[in-house]
Structures are given as structure tokens and as C-alpha cells.
């Protein structure tokens, strides 16, 4: 395998099934399978412009709503950190995405 065939997770195109997020990708002009690297500047800009839930949804690949924030203390903490430091919140969302992906993989393996 040569080095051109190796793609890190951050650069790998993501497949998202959530229609709302796919519509956002299309409106932003980043295609239907953008990588996290493609998503990063848009998500940070959204969080900086107080479109925090939309920015979070871009990273997680699904719609994030106020009810979920109210029920999930980790997402609530990430949202609150986005108010002060959107770049750090993006990093926290990457950790959250990784845990959600691991949970989904373990459920499909059972």
C-alpha cells in the first residue's frame, strides 16, 4: 500500500444519512460526503456566530436539538464551551463523535 492510499479519519469522506445535515452540507457547498477537515471551518464559524446546535450537528452528522442538549450533560457542556471557545468545542465534538461511532460499531457487532 502506498502513502497515497492511506487516509486518516480526519481526512476520510464521511457518510451521513441525516437529511437535515445533508441539506446543510449542500447549502455550504462542501458536497454530500465531506471530511471532518472540510467541515471544521464551517462548524467553528457557525458556533462562533451563535449557530451552535447547527455547528454541532455538522460535526456529529446528525441534527442536535435543544431537547437532546437538555437531557445530555456532555453535549450541554460542549455547547457551553462553544460559547467561549468554538475551536475547543470542535475538539470536544470529535471525541464525542468517536464515542458515538464506537458505540454504534459495538451494537452492530452484537
Describe it.
The protein contains six helices and no strands. The N and C termini lie far apart (31 Å). It has 110 residues and is mainly α. The protein has helices spanning 19-28, 36-48, 52-60, 66-71, 73-84, 86-109. It is globular.
Task: List the SSEs and their pairings.
Blueprint: H1 19-28, H2 36-48, H3 52-60, H4 66-71, H5 73-84, H6 86-109
Helix pairs in contact: 2-3, 2-6, 5-6
Listing every helix as H and every strand as E from the N terminus to the C terminus, the arrangement reads HHHHHH
- Number of DSSP strands? 0
Task: Report the mean per-residue pLDDT as an integer.
Answer: 91
Number of self-contained structural domains: 1
Helical residue percent band? 55-70%
Keywords:
110 residues, mainly alpha, 6 helices, 67% helix, globular
Summarize the structure.
The protein has helices spanning 19-28, 36-48, 52-60, 66-71, 73-84, 86-109. It has 110 residues and is mainly α.
Amino acid at each position: 500500500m502506498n502513502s497515497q492510499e492511506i487516509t486518516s479519519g480526519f481526512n476520510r469522506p464521511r457518510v451521513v444519512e441525516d437529511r437535515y445535515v445533508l441539506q446543510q452540507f449542500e447549502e455550504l457547498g462542501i458536497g454530500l460526503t465531506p471530511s471532518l477537515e472540510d467541515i471544521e471551518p464551517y462548524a467553528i464559524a457557525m458556533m462562533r456566530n451563535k449557530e451552535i446546535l447547527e455547528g454541532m450537528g455538522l460535526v456529529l452528522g446528525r441534527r442536535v436539538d435543544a431537547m437532546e442538549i437538555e437531557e445530555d450533560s456532555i453535549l450541554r457542556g460542549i455547547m457551553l464551551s462553544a460559547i467561549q471557545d468554538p475551536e475547543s468545542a470542535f475538539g470536544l465534538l470529535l471525541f464525542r463523535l468517536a464515542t458515538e461511532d464506537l458505540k454504534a460499531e459495538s451494537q452492530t457487532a452484537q
